């Protein structure tokens, strides 16, 4: 099978012009088929405030009312997505900006109201519903999809969807056609035993060691959902998941010794 990298860029790198410039240069030079996934929460929050719409967050998750949905659609699907595509084109990386609504690539449904009404937040249906035929055709044409963190409900509504979830969903869906590595690139060197110590990288993580570390409370709580999703993706056919420094994306995507490599 041909190798393919699904790479999600973290928000702190997206918000840092110098780091983003270097990341895009390195990303463009990663060989073979690849997919880029991005969010843009900080920029969306800044624009919301400028428009007199106060961001509403609960447990770190954005409540997406109708006005906020307009803002995130403009920022994620427009401002950020098209600027990323333009910058990749300037680097010789032929790209196509997409949301989950385009070509019906990622169907989703509005999150049901339980304790909290998140508004127009989307939960992805399943990897089986992803339009893999379309994505495979882009790979054949050497076109790189650049996905904003937006999906749709099939009823005419856009939905704000977690970028990590979109990345893992695409990785699982594509694993039937490619040997897929899912890469979460951000500002840290990898999964750290001590979040304040960049030298404490866990270079290889498998289920038994992960269970041991969780029991000890040794992993930063904010990393646990990402790791749980990583193991779930592996169980559904993804070859490897790597969490690491965006500045080392060439090494990571090339299978080199950088970041935290997660396997079964």
From TrEMBL:
Coiled-coil boundaries: none
Tagged with keyword NAD: no
Gene3D superfamilies, per database record: Acetylglutamate kinase-like (3.40.1160.10)
One Gene Ontology biological process: L-arginine biosynthetic process via ornithine
Binding-site residues, substrate: 40-41, 62, 160
Aspartate/glutamate/uridylate kinase domain: residues covered: 3-243
Predominant place of localization: cytoplasm
GO CC terms of this entry: cytoplasm
Reaction it catalyzes: N-acetyl-L-glutamate + ATP = N-acetyl-L-glutamyl 5-phosphate + ADP
Site location (Transition state stabilizer): 8, 226
Localization: Cytoplasm
GO molecular function: acetylglutamate kinase activity; ATP binding
E.C. code: 2.7.2.8
Pfam families reported in the protein's UniProt record: AA_kinase
Annotated keywords: Amino-acid biosynthesis, Arginine biosynthesis, ATP-binding, Cytoplasm, Kinase, Nucleotide-binding, Transferase
Pathway: Amino-acid biosynthesis; L-arginine biosynthesis; N(2)-acetyl-L-ornithine from L-glutamate: step 2/4
Major enzyme class: transferase
Domain of life: Bacteria
PANTHER family, per the entry: N-ACETYLGLUTAMATE SYNTHASE, N-ACETYLGLUTAMATE SYNTHASE, MITOCHONDRIAL
Task of the protein: Catalyzes the ATP-dependent phosphorylation of N-acetyl-L-glutamate.
Similarity comment text for this entry: Belongs to the acetylglutamate kinase family. ArgB subfamily.
Protein name: Acetylglutamate kinase
